[in-house]
Amino acid sequence: MHPLVRALLGPWELRWEVLIPLALFGSLYALGWVRLRRQSKTQKVASKWRLVLYYLGLGSVALALMSPIDWLGTQLLTMHMVQHKILVMVSAPLIWLGNPYPVALWGLPLSVRRFVTAGIAGDTWLRAGLKAISAPGICWLVFTFTYLAWHDPFLYDLALRVDWVHNLEHLTFFLTAMLFWWPVVNGAPRLHKSMPYWGRILFVLAFVPPNAIAGFAIANSPEVIYAHYNTVPRLYGMSALQDQMIGGAVMWVWSSEMMINVAVIMLGVMSLKERKRKQKETEAAGSAQKPLSEHRIEKVEVAG
């Protein structure tokens, strides 16, 4: 077994600052899901497939922040890039696909649920603030700026040297990724008009060029950009420059490919919905013509 694979299969680190929020949100979701299912097992808000996706999302956060991927990221740029991609490209969209807002809301006590609902549904500063930051253009700009800014050599090295900065880096990656995927998944609460599928396709594809340029620049740099990796013991016979080439390729190729895959999936969904719409129109037209034909037959029979 390759030493890197053996390291990845090693023990996880118990981090309470990660585990407690995950346990809290996981418990709220479970309680809300059970309450909604008791009302109706056929309703779509708390479906089984959404339950699975939500917990896969939470599990991927734990994987990124508590598994050996986390400490390997301080030794290898490649693993640090993988960690970031899990948080922004896997965890965030999976959690949104779980439809967390209405389900977790039902996990709250009735008085708290009414308070939260009034704050978001009413004419409040909370709704105004959420509406401002959840505009699709703002979501895209905030995420893209945050994502690229943390790859600045000074900030990147600082995060690797100072624990609280490292935690802040991961937190801002995840929260801005949640903003980015909000209009793409069209998750609740819906504070803006839903983007058409072609708009969502353009939204995710617009991220590909800046991401690819940054990843290409890192992968093809003739010098080590992040000085921290020159100061740590080199693992598995990989030089800092070789590690940087692979890490840059992960950012350049993997992230761009995932966005393109999302665009292709949405194109398929858009095509399927259009086909169903045309089928319904055809069936409606056929139903409308049937009474007319029967009426004509009756007139012929009467005339005969």
Q: Quickly count the domains.
A: 1
State the end-to-end distance.
89 Å
The 3D shape can be described as: globular
List the helices and strands in order.
HHHHHHHHHHHHHHH
How would you sum up the major sheet?
none
Q: Mean pLDDT score, rounded?
A: 90
What count of helical segments does DSSP give?
A: 15
- Outline the low-pLDDT stretches: none
Radius of gyration of CA atoms, rounded to a whole number: 25 Å
Q: How many beta strands in the DSSP annotation?
A: 0
Structural class: mainly alpha
The share of residues in extended strands comes to: under 5%
Helix content, binned percent: over 70%
Give your account of this protein's structure:
The structure is a single chain. The chain is mainly α. The protein has one domain. It is built from 15 helices and no strands. The radius of gyration is 25 Å and the shape is globular. The model has no long low-confidence stretch (mean pLDDT 90).
